[in-house]
Design goal:
Blueprint: E1 8-10, H1 17-25, E2 28-35, E3 45-52, E4 55-60, H2 68-74, E5 78-81, H3 84-95, E6 101-104, H4 105-111, H5 119-127, H6 133-136, H7 147-158, H8 160-174, H9 177-191, H10 214-233, H11 243-254, H12 259-264, H13 276-288, H14 308-327, H15 332-335, H16 338-346, H17 351-354, H18 357-363, H19 367-370
Parallel strand pairs: 1-4, 2-5, 5-6
Antiparallel strand pairs: 2-3, 3-4
Length: 372
């Protein structure tokens, strides 16, 4: 087995200068992030991995290092990333970072219709590199970081330039490089939206549209109990209890169960048995609440049901899209997803507003649109 590549760990203010100097000499940077979203209530960026100028730098974001000079330099570089959507949103929320240009190897693999687009699969296929699956789910907020985790982190960026070259050549041969450029520019734009802020109707999860009365009030109470508990003990909500548990509570209440029967419908597990009393209090409050006092669903504004003509156009558009995708071949949703098909069915004249140029070009002359 090959030795892990050498790297510089930056966790002291005096250690940042070599990375800044490397960025000043470079035009492009391979970048990845590690976060603690599997272990804490609020996600934090914990580690940044850079491959720049033939060197790997690992930056401890939780260390007392002023990273302002880093962000200003990085914003001018072409980035090579894998699955950048989460990372770009995370960095925007952290410091309002916005990329200037990007090559995302996930988007490239999708446009090549690769059956598996995960980094582990692509690295194994092209470079014989096998990533440690346990490290993918590690707690990156723990300090000190183990040598094993740091070695793993280097592999997330080491092969990105070479992988980019392989995928770029294949895309060029298919005439799809411009498609990727458009996808990446949209990814950058979407990244500047960050993560959606909390909403008063976030508790309406899963099968909640089937619930009435007591089911809704219990779901509302139990969901907020899970959120407040997760925040208090600083874990992700799913580690308090699953969404399925919340829905089972609500469905039992919806069918007329008593408080004891509602609670008997689920099991929190030994780790969270101590939370049972506070959950019981939440369920009791939910059962006692008037459903009319719950937050109302947002109105649909001026939305009107689809006409027969619009429904027919939507079906025709889907058929056109699927036929084109099968011929390319390509995942049909890369051309237009369900929501976009619905928008086009209602307003086909907005084709160039709803879709990217390469997507619109594939559909522009199809009968469903040309007759719109």
């Amino acid at each position: 087995m090959k030795s892990p590549p050498a790297y510089r760990l930056i966790d002291q203010p005096t250690q940042l200068a070599p990375l800044l100097a490397a960025l000043d000499r470079a035009t492009e940077v391979a970048l990845d992030t590690e976060a603690d979203n599997l272990f804490h209530y609020r996600t934090r960026v914990c580690l940044l991995q850079f491959y720049v100028g033939g060197e790997i730098f690992l930056v401890d974001v939780l260390a007392p290092v002023d990273l302002a000079p880093l962000w200003s330099r990085l914003a001018t570089k072409h980035l090579i990333m894998h699955g950048s959507d989460f990372d770009l949103r995370l960095l925007y929320d952290l410091c309002r970072f916005t990329a200037s240009s990007l090559f995302d190897t996930v988007l490239a693999a999708q446009l090549l219709h690769r059956p598996r687009v995960g980094l582990a699969s692509l690295l194994e296929q092209h470079f014989g590199v096998v990533l440690d699956k346990d490290s993918q789910k590690a707690n990156w907020s723990q300090r000190p970081l183990s040598k094993g985790l740091l070695d793993y982190a280097t592999l997330d960026v080491l092969h990105l330039p070479a992988l980019r070259d392989i995928l770029r050549d294949e895309l060029s041969a298919l005439g799809r490089l411009e498609w990727l450029e458009q996808q990446c520019q949209r990814q950058i734009l979407v990244g500047t939206e960050g993560f959606a802020p909390p909403d008063e109707n976030d508790w309406r999860i899963g099968r909640s549209e089937r619930l009435r009365g007591r089911g809704l009030t219990v779901l509302h109470a139990a969901w907020h109990w899970r959120e407040s508990t997760a925040s208090r003990i600083d874990v992700p909500p799913f580690k308090v209890c699953s969404t399925d548990v919340l829905l089972k509570l609500a469905e039992a209440a919806d069918h007329g169960a008593t408080e004891a029967e509602v609670l008997a419908s689920i099991h929190l597990g030994k780790r969270h048995e101590r939370l049972a009393s506070s959950l019981a209090e939440a369920v009791r409050a939910g059962l006692a609440r008037d459903p009319q006092t719950l937050p109302k669903r947002r109105g649909r504004g001026d939305f009107t049901p689809f006409t027969v003509e619009e429904l027919a156009r939507q079906d025709a558009l889907k058929a056109d899209r699927d036929r084109i995708a099968a011929k390319l071949p390509l995942d049909p949703t890369l051309i237009a997803n369900r929501a976009q098909l619905a928008q086009l069915a209602r307003a086909p004249e907005r084709l160039d507003e709803i879709l990217l140029p390469w997507q619109a070009g594939l559909l522009r002359h199809e009968p469903a649109l040309s007759q719109g």
